[in-house]
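User: Here's a protein and a ligand (NAP). What would the complex look like?
Assistant: Let me lay out the input and then the predicted complex.
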Amino acid sequence: MAEKSMHGKTLFISGGTRGIGKAMVYAYAEKGCAVAFTYASSADTAKEIIADIESKYSVKCRAYKLDILEPLTYKDVYKLFDEDFDRLDYFISNAIISGRAVVGGFGPFMRLKPRGLNNIYTATVDAFVVGAQEAAKRMEVTGGGSIISMSSTGNLVYTPNYAGHGTNKAAVEAMVRYAAAELGEKNIRVNAVSGGPIDTDALKAFPNYEEVKGEVVRRSPLSRMGEVTDLTGACLFLCSTESSWLTGQTIVVDGGTTFQ
Ligand SMILES: NC(=O)c1ccc[n+]([C@@H]2O[C@H](COP(=O)([O-])OP(=O)(O)OC[C@H]3O[C@@H](n4cnc5c(N)ncnc54)[C@H](OP(=O)(O)O)[C@@H]3O)[C@@H](O)[C@H]2O)c1
């Protein structure tokens, strides 16, 4: 059960302009949580989301430009965050790269190339590390918090073309466990939420999108693909006091597709 109210709390999430990240921005704001999110190129969309969130939910909402291929720039983004917000309670590492940046990392095994694979590592693991370190420094001041990395079941089940992302999601889940082991003493919990295939732009970029969609619907005992809102419940739970002894874990939300 998620907290009834998150009034007075603040979420920082990377990649809030589309897909799963945008659904998170709305889900937390609906609970009364102030929200800071990042974008890469969708500056206009970010402005629209801010206006919509502030008018619908009367919570503070701000957005900052971030490139997760340059993870250390997180530090500058957090400085801007500090000018707008006086506390941080929840951090979700959500943004993901696509397009040119994943060439050589997204494709069949025999076409994988170090540069593409390294880009995905940078955007997945390095970005999580720097984003979470900066978050932890701020959470420590107010007595704790909850950090989440988005992951995907492509590290558990074979997904065509997904070797680069799948291996790096496995890596970030391992990093989550290490962070959890060391940040617990600061009352900071660290977990991952691993989603099965969700109908987003990222998935639509798959060359065989229709085939993947059909296969997911067939495999799921619930006979449907995931929607962007399907992962918000697990994240809200991980940020609530109901999960106060839950750390170092990955919650799989996959519509039952992983076992089939
Ligand atoms: N889709 C799925 O099936 C699925 C399933 C399970 C888990 N996930 C995970 O959930 C997370 C979100 O996925 P999604 O499908 O919602 O992604 P998406 O629709 O492709 O959205 C990506 C987000 O990341 C931002 N972004 C793109 N390139 C960036 C860069 N270089 N630096 C910083 N931000 C950048 C985008 O901002 P702009 O709009 O400004 O470009 C956007 O907000 C990812 O970690 C993904 O692995 C996805």
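Summary: The first strand starts at residue 10 and ends at 13.
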